[in-house]
Task: structure prediction
Amino acid sequence: MIEVDGSMGDGGGQLLRYSVALSVLLGQDLKIYNIRAKRSNPGLRPQHLTAVKTIASLAKAEVEGLKIGSKVVVIKPRERPEGGKINIDIGTAGSISLLLQALLPVLFFARDNSEVVVKGGTTVKWAPPIPYMQHVLTKLLSFFGANAEIELLRRGFYPRGGGIVKAKVFKVDSLKSVVMKPFSNIEKIEGISYVANLPVHIAKRQATAAKDLLSKAYPHVSLRIDIDYRTPAIGKGTGIVLWAVTDQGVLGADSIGEIGKRAEAVGGEAARKLVNELKARAAVDEHALDNLVIYMSLARGTSRIYARGLTSHAETALKLCKMIAGADYRVEETDGGVIVEIKGIGLGS
Result:
């Protein structure tokens, strides 16, 4: 049985979700202790409980310690993950994106294609909004030969949640390795500025602020930001997601509206984040790299990706994939960023 210290690295919920996902993917018995020990409310919270329960159920795993506040969980997978139709209600405004980040790699290697409907938060602090998943992450996963379609049916904001997302996940036999270098050309910049149960001018002002900054930085690049005020929603909220398509990959950035935060500040914040990534000529943005480590580790062959920097989440994911999957990695710092190289274990091949 592999034992993982849940306080390792950033010690957050991602470590827990990815540990369980790797356990199920590899059929490895796993014990996670000190779960979220560094947090002010340590142990399992409702959203983590839902993620562990869902992922474990796909492999008919035996699970110990599955209760709110638990700091130790033991997972014993019994079968290869199965796909099919899955319905999940997080029960809070917990992030749908964070759940999908852990669920997707498991479903790619499931016995069948999957259709997942998840109810929860679609725009949540410290998590990527659903449009980021649609326009950035799924596009990057396609480079590995992994295809998923994500549809936003209803937005859900803190504290009520209630958003609904449908994801179709197509099974793979194995994942391809990728090499993503510093880009040479920006093909286009796109985005979506959205508002729910608030005046549409907020979304328009967010978009205008982002356009002003981006058009000055990249005057010769095609730029388009759509306005969305029609998608049904529970609660009120705003946000903007931007992405740049290059000759190497896709980079994303976002910002969420808050009470007292002007629309212009929201749009400008997202644009500045994207410009910082583009200035580094990164193949993927820092937060995308967090999510790609597990795919690089499971792929056939050696993958190399250039990014602006390495977040604490990415560092934790690298250590976790080495510990559980045995994927060797190397991080090389350059003048403008980092190159992450991982020798994949070739799962399924």
About this structure: The longest strand covers residues 186-196. The mean pLDDT is 95. The CA atoms of residues 51 and 99 lie 6 Å apart.
